[in-house]
Write a structure and sequence with these properties.
The protein is mostly helical and 166 residues long. The chain contains eight helices and no strands. The chain has two domains: 81 residues, no CATH class; 70 residues, no CATH class. Helix content is 72%, strand content 0%. The protein is globular. The relative contact order is 0.08.
Length: 166
Amino acid sequence: MEFCIMDSKLLTPFFEEVKLKIRKAQYAAMREVNIQLIELYWEIGKAISEKQKLGWGKKVVESLSKSLMEEFPKMKGFSSTNLWLMTQFFQAYSEDVNLHPMVGEISWSKHIVILGKIKEREVRKKYIVLTRNFNWTKAQLIREIENKTHLNIQHSQSSFSNHPSI
């Protein structure tokens, strides 16, 4: 059997094509994991919210946190603080049926920034959409919120809420 070594100039485009396919698959997998994680956090926040209506409080959430961390020791994100953030996340967005499908399109850390820095529901919605559309990093999102970018965009358009991408 004869082994032929091809010119590296011919191989380079092929190698780059394969690498691009791998990167696209990795990105798609990470995106799906994020969507599933956000959906899990939504469901946990919903469950805690429902228990709160029955009078359950801080001690139950602390006990749940401890139980989850014991059951899933290699997983992060089940501190009582994070469980309360999940509850806040659900409560903040559950009333807007148009927003729920969008929340999985940005990472949990970006949601925490938005929830922590913005109180108005419509402004939160704008930053979720802007973050998704412009693929902002967490640091960039923080800068954009501090710079009140939503106001600049609002003033530069006749009606921000009627913008086709929002």
